[in-house]
Every structure is written in C-alpha cells, then in structure tokens.
Amino acid sequence: ALPGNFFERSVQLHVLKLCHCIFRFSPSPFLHCKTIRFLGLDSCMDKPEETKEDERGDRWIIEFFQSLSVLDIRRTDLELALSPDITKEMETNIREINIKGGRIWHKKLGWTWRNLQNIHKLRVIAPTRSWETESSMDDFSDLLKLQLLDLSGNSTVQVLPSLSGATALSTLVLDGCTGLEHVGPESLTPSLETFS
C-alpha cells in the first residue's frame, strides 16, 4: 500500500504510472504533484479509510488537474465525485482519456463527456459500468476538438450518441458494441475518415 505522503516531495514529476497498487483514491497520494501531465493507473485498488475532511478542501485537487493532460485508467474503478470547480479544470486541460476495463465516473452519479471541450482522444473500452444517463445521447455532439472516439466493447450502448457537432472527428471505433442496434448517417460527422 502507498502511504498518503509518498509523493509529497515529487514536485518535478511529470509522468506517473502506478500498477497493482493499493492506496486511498480520495485524497490520492499523488495530488501533491502539481506538474503531472500523464497519470496512468493499472489494476489499482482503493483503500478507503475513515478520516476527517482535509482542511485544504478541493484546492489540491484543482491544482492537480490544472497540469494533467492525459488520464489513462486500466482495470481500475476510480470513482470521481467531483465538485464543479474540479470538473472545470478537467474540462479545460485534459486532452486525452483512455479507459480500458475500468471507469472514472461515480457509480451513483451521472457522468457527462460534453463538458470536456478540449479533449482530442477518448477511448472508453469495455468499461466496468455504463456512464449513460437519460440525457447522455448528445454527450459527444459538443466535442469540437475530438479526433478519435473508441467505444469498443461497450455492450450497454444501444444507440450511438449524436456526433454531428464533433466536426474534427476522423476515427470512430465501435468494435464489440454488441448492444448497438442502429448507426445512422444522421449520427455521424462528415469529417469521419476511419470507421470500424
């Protein structure tokens, strides 16, 4: 298990990839690293503890997301129950999200991708739980900078969300979306170059 202060002095750390680690996801031991550009978590587990709330509040989490560009989650259920301020930092700075066999959304809260206006690459491959809600059908339509969307292995997706506003989208991957019943031309964008 990683102690909570493990990365406290790692002020120049830019890339962090943790594999098969157990640590408290909230607050995470790497939140002190304000220069991380790439965060990868592979097969990590949460170690929940009863503690009092941090007096710094969301400030440390906000500072962490100010530098993060790439979030890579594999076989890890990282439940982000984020305040509006933290979500705003994610919207502005994250350029790429890769999820394979995990999730970043809270199981009891809805999740929307539509606010990630600067995202270029989004891969949500075989997530452990669907992010979809009643209003998620237009989640990708406002992602003007999205170039790659990979929803491989999403067996719960029944209707492809509208991509008509994703005018930079050139690659769409829907391999293994066994529940997908219909993909119509109205859902796609003219910029599409590769479709599988």
Description:
- With 196 residues, the chain is mainly β.
- Helix content is 10%, strand content 22%.
- It has helices spanning 59-67, 84-93; strands at residues 15-19, 22-23, 38-42, 45-46, 70-74, 77-80, 96-100, 103-105, 121-125, 148-150, 171-173, 194-195.
- The strands form three sheets. It has an eight-stranded parallel β-sheet with strand order 1-3-5-7-9-10-11-12, with no helix packed on it. Strands 2-4 form a two-stranded parallel ribbon. It has a two-stranded parallel sheet with strand order 6-8.
Descriptive tags:
196 residues; mainly beta; two-stranded parallel ribbon; globular
Summarize this, please?
This protein has 196 residues and is mainly β. It contains 2 helices and 12 strands, in the order E-E-E-E-H-E-E-H-E-E-E-E-E-E.
In total, how many beta strands? Answer: 12
Major beta-sheet overview: 8 strands, parallel
Any low-confidence stretches, pLDDT <50, length ≥5?
none
Category by helix and strand content:
mainly beta
Please state roughly what percent of the residues sit in beta strands, choosing from under 5%, 5-15%, 15-25%, 25-35%, 35-45% or over 45%. 15-25%
Oligomer: single chain
Enumerate how many helices there are, as a single number.
2
Q: Could you estimate the helical fraction of the residues in percent? A: under 10%
Order of helices and strands: EEEEHEEHEEEEEE
Strand order of the largest sheet: 1-3-5-7-9-10-11-12
Q: Supply Rg.
A: 17 Å
